[in-house]
Amino acid sequence: MKISFWERLKAPGRKSDLILAAVLVAAFVSFELSDRSPAGIFEHLVMVIGFIWLYVQYLKPADHAVDILSEALRKHGEILPDVELDPPASARAASERLDRYANQVTETINAHQQMQDRRMKELSDAHQDLITHHRITKMMLQSIITEEIFEILIKGVRDGLGFSGAVLAIRDRDGYLVFNEESAEGSRYSHRIPAWDGNSLLARTFWGGSPLQVRHLDDHAYTPEDRGILGESPAFLLPVSRKLGIQCSEEKNCRNVECSSYLAKNPRCWVDNSATCSSNASVPEDRRRKACVQCELFSPAAFLAVRGFSGSRAVTRESIVPIVALANEAILALEVVELHENLRKMSVTDGLTGLTNHREFYNQLRKELERARRYRHTVSLLIIDVDDFKKYNDRFGHLAGDLALKKIADLLRLCARTTDIVARYGGEEFAVILPESSASGALMLAERIKTEVANFNFLPQVPGEVHLTVSIGIYTAEEGAVTEDQLVGYADEAAYSAKNTGKNRVVVKTHA
């Protein structure tokens, strides 16, 4: 912006105004003492005008600039030397202050830029985490195998989120947390920690079902096995739990409606809730936590330990957020797997007894007959009919009848081999397929079943003893030389014959 001559002249000044006044007074005195000739007057005018021009052009702006800087700096708390006494010193001091301010502004700009860069990196990392979350979630939801979901989860945490020190443990049937790792040489080794061990930090966290961020291992009670897995670095511990779709009464096959855990879906119902649980009463106090962990109702199924190893992503309060989100998606995927498995079980099992249902019975019978034809084996079939079951229902009620059928199913499972197929054929009729079993072997099993059922007291709460009997028919197909309908028909004829000849007996169907 250009400043006019008169604006410069009117600008406030200090020492420069005194100099101008002194020069004008000197010029006036010199003029008075001169001869006042035209040439002398002209010289004085030129001298005065020239000085005024120099004053306005150079002296006045410099003095005014120093005043402005001094006043501005004073407003910001800076104390400068007296401008009146030493303008150059004041100017130098103002220059130093301005240089310092410039450095501060530069530092502020750099800090702001660093903050912006850090924020952009955080946004970029968050965006990458979202992409990883979407990709891993899609893979988990497409899987219908529990072990595969766990593999996808640990791979997503390690490779996708950058936590290369993460390790996943799976609860086995015995209630142990099994950590599988790979050494630098490529060999695999495993750690087994009892999930019911109250001294172990990992076991306590798994038992509680809630995540835990460990800044220093020494802040917690731990075992040497914990240190061997976690090391000295910060860690994040996260149990991966299932959403239970089964109630305690269903799992324990219990009809004690007075029990506080009857409808519970609690992973620690034995320990925390019920003192009258019949299953609980059979477990000693020192083994109760172990039995609880081994129970199907115990919801934590896996355990994720994210360790802050060198070269791995740092374990902080902010960085663990995507891990929790991914674990929650794994829980949903496990729920989908459980729903799929339940649907599969419902399609092949009987809803009351849990045995193979009628349709699946024929599928399995067809497969076994095909195997028998291929390998020239024998297949035996037992058809089991409960005697006088309608009278039992009429006397004790249909609920007691259902309980009796369930107990008979349990007795059949107990008597049969692991390779045998036990099914509910319909109503009060059961069937057992015996692969690679001769007629004599089938007869031995049938006699055992008949004895076990006849000796069992089905209503212990009723005075006296209440017993049921069964009639069993057997047919053995040599080398699978019959159809499934013929095999069932022959065994059913034998069962009908047993029923008509006195009940509570076994009849073997043979051909002359």
Describe the model.
Helices cover 54% and strands 14% of the residues. The protein has 512 residues and is of the alpha+beta class. The strands form 2 sheets. The chain has a 6-stranded antiparallel sheet with strand order 3-2-1-6-5-4, sandwiched between helices. Strands 8-9-7-10-11 form a 5-stranded mixed sheet, with helices on both faces. Helix 4 (87-142) runs parallel beside helix 12 and helix 14 crosses helix 15. The radius of gyration is 47 Å and the shape is rod-shaped. The model has no long low-confidence stretch (mean pLDDT 83).
Descriptive key words:
alpha+beta, 6-stranded antiparallel sheet, 5-stranded mixed sheet, 17 helices, 54% helix
* Order of strands in the sheet with most strands: 3-2-1-6-5-4
Going by helix content, strand content and strand pairing, the class is alpha+beta
- Write down the secondary-structure element order: HHHHHEEEHEHEHHHHEHHEHHEEHEHE
Q: Summarize the amount of helix as a percent range.
A: 40-55%
The mean pLDDT is 83
From the alpha-carbon coordinates, what is the Rg to the nearest angstrom?
A: 47 Å
Please report the total strand number as a whole number.
11
Question: What is the number of helices?
Answer: 17
Percentage of residues in DSSP E strands: 5-15%
Net shape: rod-shaped
Q: Point out poorly predicted stretches.
A: none
- How far is it from the N-terminal to the C-terminal residue, by CA? 127 Å
Largest β sheet strand count, sense and barrel closure: 6 strands, antiparallel
